[in-house]
Give the backbone structure.
Amino acid sequence: MTTAGDVRVGIIGGGLMGRELAAVCGRWDLLVDHPARPRVVAVADPSPAAREWFDRVDTVTLATDDWRHLVEDDGIDVLYIAVPHQLHEEIYVAAAAAGRDFLGEKPFGIDLGAAERIVGAIDASDAFVRVSSEFPFYPGAQRAWAYAASGALGDVLDVRSGFWHSSDINRTKPINWKRRAETCGELGVMGDLGLHVAHVPLRLGWVPRSVYARLDDVVTERPGPDGSPVVCDTWDNALLTCTAHPERGRDFTMLWETRRIAPGHANTWYFEAVGMDGGVRFSTREPATLRRFSVREGEQVWEEVQPGNVSAWPVVSGAIFEFGFGDALLQMWAAYFAERAAALGERFGTATPHEALMAHRVFDAALRSQRTDSPQSP
Ligand SMILES: NC(=O)c1ccc[n+]([C@@H]2O[C@H](COP(=O)([O-])OP(=O)(O)OC[C@H]3O[C@@H](n4cnc5c(N)ncnc54)[C@H](O)[C@@H]3O)[C@@H](O)[C@H]2O)c1
C-alpha cells in the first residue's frame, strides 16, 4: 500500500553503498516528522551475490542484472546510482534523459569531460539530481558551516579541508576497481575522497582560482586475483594548495587534502577555517567536539562546544547521544528527499551537480599542476 510521502527507490549498484542505503531506509523511523518515507523496491547489479544480499529487504520486488530496467520503470520514483566510476556517465546521462530523479555517487563521472556531459544532460532535463557527500551532516560539521556562513570569521585567512584514511596502508591488500585508473579515473584519491572535501568550501562560496598540487602514488602494485602483482596506477594521496576567490572579500589560501594512506587515521574528515575575528574546527576524529575561536575583550579564545546529537533533521534518539557515520548518511538522505519535496527550507542541502562539476575542474587543474609543477587555473 502506498501512503502520502512514500518514495519508491531503485538502487543501481548493490555493493557497499547500495547496501548502506537499504540500511538507512530500514531505520527511517529514527526521523521525526520527515516529509518522505523511502522504500527500496528494486536493485540492479550484474553480480548475483550483490542481488542476493537484497533478499533480506522485504520491500524489494525486483532484482535484475540490467540497470536499464530501473531507469525505464515508472514504478520507481528515485534512483540511487552507486557504481564504479567508468559507468557513471552512461547511467547518469540515461537517468537524466529519462527524467528520473536520482542521487548519484561521487565523483560524478570518471573525469572532467564525463562530468561536463552528465551535468549538461541534467541541466537539459527536469530530473531532481544531487550528489552524495555525507560528512558535512555531522552536527559538529553543520555548526562549523553555519558559523563560517554567518560571517563570524571576519576576513578569512586560512581554510583546511581534508579527508584522511588508511584503507590502503596494507601493501598486500588485493587490487580492486578503486585502485586502477581505468575504472577509478586518473584522478585517483581525488575522485574517491575529493568531493567530501570540496562540498563545504564550495557551499560557502569559496571557489579555488588557482591550484598547486602534489600528488603521490605510494603503492605502485598490489596482488591481483591470482596473487601475482598488478599495477596500481592511481594517486594515493593528494595535497592541493588553492587560492580561494570568495564571492565577497579578499582572496585567501585554502588546502584540500585527500589521503588514502594516512598512517594513524582510520577515517578522519575535517574542516577548519580561521579569519581575523573568528575560527572554527571540526574533525570526525573527535565527533563530539566543535572548536570555535573568537577575540573577546582583547583576548584570543578557543572554546570547545559539545554539538551532541542535534542534527538538521530531528531524530527520536536523545540529544546528548553519540552521532556516527550511519547517522550522517541518514541525515544526507533526509536532506535529499526533503529538498525533492520542496521542504528543505534554510537547511544544508546535499551536494549539487554543479558543485561536483566545480570540484572536477579543481581536480583536473591539480592533474595539470602535477604534470607541469606549476599552479593551474580550474
Ligand atoms: N559516499 C561515500 O561515502 C562513498 C563511499 C564509498 C564509495 N562511494 C562511491 O559509491 C560508488 C560505488 O562504490 P562502492 O564502494 O559501493 O563500490 P562496490 O564495488 O562495493 O559496489 C559497486 C557495485 O556496482 C556493481 N556494478 C558493476 N557494474 C554494474 C552495472 N553495469 N550495473 C549495475 N551495477 C553494477 C558491482 O557489481 C558492485 O556490486 C562509487 O562512485 C564510489 O566512489 C561513496
